[in-house]
Amino acid sequence: MENVKTVRMRDVKFDPSLFINYKTGTAMDEVLCSYSGLPKGVNYMIIGDPGVGKTTVILDMLANLKREQKDIRCLFVSAEMNEIDLAIYVHRYPKFQDLDILFVEPDYQSGGGSTFENLENILATGWDVVAIDSFIELQGIIKEEKNITNKKTESLLIQLIKQQNKGENRSGLNTTFLTIQQVTKTGNFIGSNRLKHSITAMMELRLENPKNIYSDRYVVFSKHRRGDVGVRLFYDLSTTGDVFFDEFRFSQDKQIRKLQSDASRSMREYADKFDMLFSEEI
Asked: Could you give the 3-state DSSP secondary structure of residue 205?
């Protein structure tokens, strides 16, 4: 206990480039962070209604990041789909074909726990942004290969992710993770409280009418240490070759939110003046 030390944030030094965000060049930048873009060294968990397009939106983000920053290193870890599955996505969205992809295939026979070691080795080379589809599927594969508990497997993955966040790789890159997670039938997050607290933001992809797969889709954050919660960005997957974000609707919603905020502030100020006046009369 004698070796435990406290720190003051004024004494902690960071490379200024750590706070220069990656850009997608779309309206998504406005909801990813309050100062626009995808931050470095953070963990965003993505959940959503079935069929809402979680994988498509994340692959689209990676492709857009590579388009805007030519030298960015992006990795997609696929624990749910194989090469044939991804070929369907590439046929519809050709820009996905240039992404680096790690296909995770379970090896339950060797007993060597190869998936986790392979993931460790690949991440050790250093990546700017890593997307995982999905956390629970990757967790299940590693759990079976290593023959350990869910809790132990989750701890291994969280520790590995945090190490990469801090730039503990050969390239010294503060890796950002975009991790898709499955949900229950009622749409609730699957995972422990530790996993939930380890993330920077919870991005939800939802249908306006969950019972109608053709209803409008939107991105919204229910937890966000780097931005706003409750702000909806509507999107459409019908456009061939791209995910279309409704920037006009987003701009309108933003103006309405500002008017509501201004009105609420005015009402508070009026109430405060009334209370002061009432107090003086007493």
From this structure: strand
